[in-house]
Amino acid sequence: MARAPGGARRRGGGSGRRGQADGGQAVRKGHWTAEEDAVLLRHVLVHGPRDWSSIRSKGFLPRTGKSCRLRWVNKLRPDLKTGCKFSAEEERVVLELQAQFGNKWARISTYLPGRTDNDVKNFWSTRQKRIARLLGTPPRGRSSRSRSRSAKGKAPVVASSLESRPATVVPCLDEVPLEGSSSGVVHPCSAATPFMETRSVSAALAPYDWAGSGLFSFDDGALPLACNSHACSSSNAAALLPFDQPPYPLLDVQVQGVPAGWNWNMAPGFANAGATDHLAYQELLPLTQAAPMVLPFFDAEYPLGGVKAELPDAAPDNFDDLPPDVFDSFDQPPPPVSPPATSSGF
DNA sequence: AATGGCTCCAACCGCATCTCA
DNA sequence: TTGAGATGCGGTTGGAGCCAT
């Protein structure tokens, strides 16, 4: 079924429902606009994926922190396979893990690079309904709010066989056999997949270790493929990085209109976390609203009229100025052999 | 062309858990 | 230690697109 990549379908057609926040400030609900996404991305750039509540408390967006987090996790995160159906291999992994873990979608999703718990949950739900329909059995009720919290994840949680059987883990995108191969497994996200413009992504997200996160590859020769033939492990990828170069190409263009010389590495949120972040917003938001901006997570130009960023040929020389804890801002994605001890922050 | 069922998926809600003062 | 706020998770809902009739 040819569908537009998720998110674009209803853009602009959101419900626009509004609730009433405590204190009288209206809380916007429903579908996100491009402008809201831009603001949220700004927040992540400055603060990392945290402090969601401050987005509203500081007046940047009339959205709850939960809503902001959900939007980031499910749609704006750069490592998502948007618009890419579950492959046979992914389905197999879901089936196996669901049998082991029960409905622990967040946990299951850690085995599926690029998939969110919501993706897995939706996939499973659709699949269950399809099976129920084929078997002529009524789908298990949708109104099961009464189920006890303790009943969730009903399957016995035993030591995961997958943890000791890494071969079952979905391999890197690069190594999934293409359709027609002996296994018949379809590449889950082929080259035609609107995965993202990796160069642009890495450029725009410079303040964090996106390259070291193992989520992207760099095809310009400056960096090795982060997702190599053996693992998508961030640690592995990071280990491959030539540290005589910055682990990411620093940007000098993401937002047209940003003053020349603006450097995300100098973003107040990094240089002095929290102290002057509001200043950063004040400085950036009018620019993002007034000028075309680059939102590199999307293939198409952003509705605001942005253009894709071009990477600078030469890496800036102020990488060493970054505080070391900048790179702690993102949790590492799970290694391929076993799930992470803690759920990923992505 | 109209229509109804199905699929997909974004985003909400409520509760659980975590963090920090 | 504890309570409030923040964050995470799982279930659910609703709407748009696709497709068969």
UniProtKB/TrEMBL annotation:
The keyword Lyase belongs to this UniProt entry's keyword annotation: no
Keywords of the record: DNA-binding, Nucleus, Repeat, Transcription, Transcription regulation
Biased composition (Basic residues): 142-152
Span of domain Myb-like: 24-76, 85-128
Subcellular location field: Nucleus
GO MF terms, alphabetically ordered: DNA binding
Positions of region (Disordered): 1-29, 136-160, 313-346
Protein name (Swiss-Prot/TrEMBL): Transcription factor GAMYB
Gene label: GAM1_4
